[in-house]
Write a structure and sequence with these properties.
By secondary structure, the chain is mainly α. The protein contains 7 helices and 2 strands, in the order H-H-H-H-H-E-E-H-H. Strand 1 and strand 2 form a beta hairpin. The longest helix is centred in the last third of the chain and has 30 residues. Bound molecules: zinc ion (ZN). Zinc ion binds next to loops.
Length: 165
């Protein structure tokens, strides 16, 4: 479902899409969900990077509301969580889990064949400029907000599109 929604949002010219009505319905459907979830789907699955600043601002606002950390740290925490969520693939194999060796494909050494990049807290500390305590809590909150918002938007869009199905 998320992929279908993203394909619709990413379609540059809906007019010539044979599934025009269905695609247009999908774009409309994610509009019914929470705005943050809709922006996140557009950002990650349809490569609409223009929403990055608004997403970070919205996440930072939520972090500040719950935790006593500065706006600039909250924005960096939000940026870090967004980046990890949007780009989870192993940088070495690109998520394929294998890489081409000299003569045959071998299990990717960087991710151990999982395909997912493992971010460490020291990487997060380098990106954010601080780690531990409130910053770590802020990161968890940002990630939970991201996944919760996307799930809510997909759930509402599915209801709008499927009705009773
Ligand atoms: Zn890998």
């Amino acid at each position: 479902m998320r992929e279908a929604l993203a394909a619709s949002v990413g379609a540059s010219n809906l007019k010539f899409d044979p599934d025009y009505e269905r695609a247009a319905d999908r774009v409309a459907a994610i509009g019914f969900g929470p705005r943050l979830g809709s922006l996140l789907i557009r950002y990650r699955d349809a490569n609409q990077v223009r929403w990055e600043r608004e997403i970070i601002a919205r996440l930072a606002k939520r972090i500040i509301r719950k935790l006593p950390i500065t706006h600039s740290i909250a924005a960096k925490v939000a940026e870090c969580a967004l980046s990890e969520w949007a780009r989870p693939h192993c940088a070495t194999c690109g998520g394929a889990r294998e890489i081409m060796g000299a003569t045959l494909k071998v299990v990717c050494h960087a991710c151990g064949g999982v395909g997912v990049r493992r971010y460490t807290n020291s990487e997060r500390r380098r990106i954010i400029g601080a780690w531990g305590g409130m910053v770590s809590d802020g990161y968890d909150l940002a990630l939970a907000t991201i996944t919760g918002s996307v799930a809510a938007t997909v759930g509402i869009a599915r209801d709008k599109l499927c009705g009773d199905c």
